[in-house]
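STRUCTURE REQUEST FORM
Protein name: Anti-sigma F factor
Source organism: Lysinibacillus piscis
Requested output: structure tokens
Priority: standard
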Amino acid sequence: MDNEMTLTFVAISENEALARIAVTAFIAQLDPTIDELSEFKTVVSEAVSNAIIHGYEEDGQGLVTLHAKREDDVITVSVMDKGMGIEDVSRAMEPLFTTKSEMERSGMGFTIMDSFSDQLTVISKWQEGTTVTFTKKFYSVRMPVM
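Status: completed
Returned output:
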């Protein structure tokens, strides 16, 4: 492992930006492309907002923990909550499935996370919490030294 960080924050919507900024700073050393950076921030946003909205129902009481690890040019991030958990992970990962249609949620969170990650894993236990882990290999935009 080259580097790692852990950030724990209160499950409130404004901390979604905190998580994005922290991960952006963490992966900056890899000199990612703008597209890679944008996609990875989107995955972080989706995972964190799911923990806040679905895990804790935005009660502002729970904690979300983000753990990031860098090995060479591969970043692995886990977003963990001890909230409600997901009763049926397979169903929750289906495109357009949402339990919050009244909030105009599209049900595309896991689909987006999966498409912008090299690997996505969701482990959840009903009434105990969820861990979403995603991995992405970055390709530096640095020009070779001549």
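Reviewer notes: The mean pLDDT is 89. The radius of gyration is 15 Å.
Form closed.
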